[in-house]
Design brief:
- With about 725 residues, the chain is of the alpha/beta class.
- Helix content is about 50%, strand content about 10%.
- Strands 13-12-11-14-15-16-17-18 form an eight-stranded mixed sheet, with helices on both faces. The chain has a six-stranded mixed sheet with strand order 1-2-4-6-8-10, with helices on both faces. Strands 3-5 form a two-stranded parallel ribbon.
- The protein is globular and about 85 Å long.
């Protein structure tokens, strides 16, 4: 047997070892060619009397990353072609048959009459794990990098090659639904406990153990293909089943507000599939999969959260002519919460870190933050004591700027004050000179003006982290007017080294993320002052797809910070630059009531020492009025909260603050949780259509104020029928 993606060797006992090792790739992925080869070797093994069974493993560090989702674009183009030539029905039939080929191939493997075992050596995700699930036995390597999972829900899809049906027959229905809906990566011990694999073993032993099982089980069948099979949670229509499904539906509604077709399809697939024999259940899954695959939500999420994010992570915006920067040692000025967080993620990535603060006590406190975070990982079984010792050894905490000698990059994370930042810049350059790449973690102060005190402004750049640094995946890289390619390349290399996603934006007040999220918080403020009940504001935001309401978010980022920014904006740009209703609210909260947010236990919410937070009753008095909820349009509330962010994103494109729509979309989802099902702020506009979006924005402007008036650029796009991804097609793609 000769294949491109697989090596097949049959031993003296008649067990075929199938090694998946796609040429030219660091990770095995499923595409049409791979699927065809799987079908071919299954057919050949089934009819070869000399082969008693087979073990599937990988020749790479990981088993498989799943399907190559970029191939779905080709299916969509073919769909459009057939629809134009033969009609929608013929196109949908093609799409259904094409999208279920993998499911049919796996079922052929499962029922071919020969035992198959999977020896899973590392990461095994998505369609790759569905291949393992189709094998009657699974042995998973018991090491730190091994993981299994079905993460399709995170890009707007669900497992469409038998995953929903096999998982739902391996474990209790509530557990199966939770696994499918969360899409988490599962460690070896947990995978065995959940019944996803039958055995774990040291990496060197997994193939031998899989082969031994094949030889010992010549007539093996999947549990669901045996006549005595019983569902783990019993029949759907049973007392137990009726305890599961109403609660599952309620949880789905609470968590998704019906915004995610894939999540709804998981419920339907499992509910309907568990009432059917496996082959019919797989057909049901395939029909839902084809439907979801054609949804605008899946298309938007795949583009932003798989294709675009992958391109940005690979350095799509990195200057092509700059040699790779091999960072070994970095300096961090400021050991406060942000600086300490940057130190932790940098040391976790293997970099040597010099953490500088005004005195030894402050520097040590910053280093202690890393010890606290890594100790938490140890307590959860995600790290070992040796990992903690090694990480802390890479961090040098000191008040001495001379310790920065030899640093390849310095990140300034001091207090958000121009004078303090300029002083830090001068002290660093006294030691390192102007050739070192210097990055400011400024969140509001323009990078161009901060660079004026630098010896070489071309080596000065903004690297804006989000809080908490260890959890937030986005980093904004801000180009000053004089920032050069070397600084940009170094910044991107650094962000990639610490395993974050970089977006590159041009300098302005608030940059990109803070401008958009600032509008979101402001809209919540204005709704409150209009008399909209605060609980209704928060719930409408969740219904629209935001992770938290604007009032809750403002508590987290600090209300007094918002007040300071408002006053600074007023000072710099004049009184007309701020909304008087918002100013009145923030003055009442911060100046009069001393309510600063979660940090002092008093904000839009009260934060008791024991128990859950609750909205502060005094908000109604500040607003001075309360509208009847029955008279308020929930759709208007939802649209206001999303449109205000999307309109601001469109303005950043017009102003050339953001030049690549991928960065606006990925940045909005990773940076401030913008409704993922839309694909991001600009994908929302493209999905609605510029013409319809502009019409709705003007409608909101007529009701709620000129802040909803679309800009000239967006209006022109609407008139021409353009979209952001067509007009601003990315010019620089990752290699």
């Amino acid at each position: 047997m000769s294949f491109t993606h697989f090596r097949i060797e049959t031993d003296a006992d008649g067990v075929a070892l199938i090694t998946w090792d796609s040429p030219g790739r660091s990770m095995n992925v499923l595409n049409a060619e791979v699927v065809a080869e799987i079908g071919k070797f299954v057919e050949e093994i089934a009819v070869d009397a000399a082969i008693k069974g087979a073990v599937v493993t990988s020749g790479k560090e990981g088993f498989s990353g799943g399907a190559d989702l970029s191939m779905l674009g080709g299916m969509g183009a073919q769909y459009a072609k057939i629809a134009g030539e033969k009609g929608e029905e013929a196109a949908m039939k093609f799409f259904y048959e094409s999208s279920r080929q993998l499911s049919l191939t796996y079922r052929k493997l499962e029922t071919c009459g020969k035992p198959f075992a999977a020896a899973i050596n590392g990461v095994c995700m998505g369609g790759g794990f569905e291949l393992a699930l189709a094998c009657q036995y699974r042995v998973l390597a018991d090491h730190d990098k091994a993981r299994v999972g079905l993460p399709e829900i995170k890009v707007g899809l669900f497992p469409g090659a038998g995953g929903t049906q096999r998982v739902a027959r391996l474990m209790a229905t509530p557990d199966a639904l939770q696994m499918l809906a969360k899409g988490d990566q599962i460690k070896p011990a947990a995978a065995k406990k959940m019944g996803l694999v039958q055995e774990t073993a040291p990496l060197a032993e997994i193939v031998a153990k899989a082969k031994a099982w094949v030889l010992a089980n010549p007539g093996a069948k999947a549990p669901w293909d045996k006549p005595d099979f019983r569902l783990p949670s019993g029949k759907v229509f049973s007392p137990t089943g009726m305890m599961v499904w109403p609660a599952a539906n309620a949880l789905y509604r609470r968590e998704t507000y019906d915004n995610y077709p894939a999540a709804r399809a998981i419920l339907s697939c499992v509910y309907e599939g568990l009432q059917l024999p496996m082959d019919l259940a797989l057909a049901v899954e395939s029909r839902y999969f084809a439907k979801v695959l054609r949804s605008k939500e899946a298309a938007a999420m795949i583009r932003s959260l798989f294709l675009s994010m992958g391109e940005l992570n690979k350095g799509a915006r990195r200057p092509a002519g700059e040699p790779e920067t091999r960072l070994k040692k970095i300096g961090i000025i400021g050991a406060g919460f942000m600086g300490a967080g940057v130190a932790y993620v940098s040391a976790s990535a293997g970099l040597e870190v010099v953490l500088v603060d005004r005195d030894q006590e402050s520097a040590d406190k910053g280093k202690a933050h890393s010890e606290k975070l890594i100790s938490s990982q140890i307590a959860k079984g995600r790290a070992k004591a040796a990992d903690r010792d090694a990480l802390l050894a890479r961090i040098t905490a000191t008040p001495d700027y001379a310790a920065l000698k030899g640093c390849d990059l310095v990140v300034e994370a001091v207090f958000e004050d121009r004078g303090v930042k300029q002083d830090a810049t001068a002290k660093v350059q006294q030691v390192l000179g102007g050739d070192v790449i210097f990055a400011s973690n400024s969140s509001t102060l323009p990078i161009t003006s901060l660079a004026e005190t630098s010896q070489k402004p071309e080596n000065f750049i903004g690297i804006h982290f989000f809080s908490p640094v260890d959890k937030m995946m986005l980093v904004e890289i801000i180009m000053g007017e004089k920032t050069g390619d070397k600084a940009l390349a170094t910044a991107i290399d650094f962000v990639r080294a610490i395993r974050k996603t970089p977006i590159v934006v041009n300098d302005c007040r608030g940059f990109f993320a803070n401008r958009c999220v600032g509008n979101y918080i402001r809209e919540g403020h204005l709704m409150l002052m209009e008399g909209v009940p605060p609980a209704m504001i928060e719930n409408a935001a969740r219904m629209a797809g935001m992770p938290v309401g604007p009032l809750s978010l403002n508590d987290e980022v600090a209300i007094d910070l918002g007040w300071k920014i408002l006053q600074a904006t007023k000072k710099d740009l004049g009184p007309n630059a701020v909304d008087p209703a918002q100013e009145k609210l923030l003055e009442a909260m911060v100046v009069k009531a001393q309510r600063f947010g979660r940090k002092n236990g008093k904000g839009f919410y009260d934060y008791p020492a024991q128990g859950q937070k609750s909205l502060w009753p005094g908000l109604a008095e500040i607003a001075g009025k309360q509208l009847d909820p029955e008279t308020i349009s929930v759709q208007d509330l939802k649209d206001r909260l999303l449109y205000t962010q999307a309109l601001e994103a469109a303005r950043t494109m017009e102003e050339k603050v953001v030049t690549d729509p991928r960065e606006a979309d990925v940045g909005s989802i990773l940076g401030f949780g913008f409704a993922p099902f839309t694909g991001g702020v600009l994908s929302l506009i493209d999905g609605v259509g510029a013409k319809a979006f502009v019409a709705r924005a003007k409608d909101l402007a007529s009701k709620y104020g000129p802040r909803f008036e679309p800009g000239a650029g967006l209006t022109a796009m609407a008139e021409k029928g353009e979209s952001f991804y067509a007009k601003y097609a990315p010019k620089q793609r990752a290699a």
